[in-house]
Design a protein that fits this description.
The protein is α/β, with parallel strands linked by helices. It is 35% helix and 17% strand. It is built from 9 helices and 8 strands. Strand 3, helix 3 and strand 4 form a beta-alpha-beta unit. The two termini are 28 Å apart.
Length: 250
């Protein structure tokens, strides 16, 4: 069954997510955007606390240094960190992002044994000026990235299914499955969207706002909300994939 990826901003939130059943702990600072750069000290604390009991990923901001205020030299040296991810806003229209992402992947694997890069596609790729989800998915599959993530760049209340249809998402996840690349779905997902997308059977559903107090991503983690989603995902065990119905983005 799909696991629940919970994005946290502190050690206290990581403890709450772990104790509530999250399958993967993602460290990021939501105040700094979709993939808000995670503090290296916080990453170290969380990795040390979990001690291998859950995989840990970390958001590194956007790939373009002038867009996010960071560059490859800020890759954290944290033993036990499993995934690192950069967004591709403002990378549309060239091959440089591919070369740079592979470069950072090499650094990650050199500095953190067992770590890998997540290829992140923005569903709202036009307004983020990023490569299309199809381009990023192809890159992830061609280079056997650690995972492929579909997210939304702008957190303005619109969700993943406002930008991509269920069939489009299903096709991307199927390509990853065939290539042996794990896939995660994010983008302001709530229970109705997760329920609709469950038949696609991604490896993870990634959430922040859906498991925060009042459903607001800048609020603290709510353990009851996490447990509820874990329970929903647990009701569907992996087996023959259900036929995906053709719901389309508006």
């Amino acid at each position: 069954m799909a696991g629940l990826l919970v994005s946290v901003r502190s050690l206290e939130e990581a403890k709450a997510a772990f104790e509530s059943g999250a399958a993967l702990i993602d460290v990021k600072e939501p105040a700094h955007g979709s993939l808000g750069h995670a503090n290296s000290g916080v990453i170290e604390e969380i990795v040390a606390y979990l001690a291998g009991r859950r995989p840990v990923s970390a958001a590194m901001g956007e790939l373009q240094p002038d867009h996010c205020g960071t560059d490859w030299q800020s890759v954290p040296h944290v033993a036990g960190l499993r995934f690192l991810k950069w967004g591709l806003a403002n990378c549309r229209g060239g091959a440089t992002w591919r070369q740079e992402l592979l470069h950072r992947r090499n650094i990650c694997q050199k500095e953190n044994a067992g770590s890998d890069v997540v290829a992140v596609a923005y569903a709202d790729w036009r307004r983020s000026r990023s490569p299309t989800p199809e381009e990023v998915c192809r890159f992830a599959c061609d280079h056997a990235c650690g995972a492929f993530l579909i997210d939304t760049w702008c957190k303005d209340g619109r969700a993943l299914l406002d930008w991509l249809s269920v069939n489009e998402i299903d096709n991307l996840v199927s390509q990853c499955r065939q290539a042996g690349v794990r896939a995660a779905l994010a983008g302001s997902l709530r229970l109705p969207e997760i329920t609709l997308l469950q038949p696609i059977d991604p490896d993870w559903f990634a959430v922040r706002g859906a498991v925060c107090r009042r459903g607001e991503r800048d609020q603290a983690i709510d353990e009851d909300r996490i447990r509820s989603l874990v329970q929903v995902l647990g009701k569907r065990s992996r087996g023959p994939r259900a036929k995906v119905q053709g719901a389309h983005a508006q």
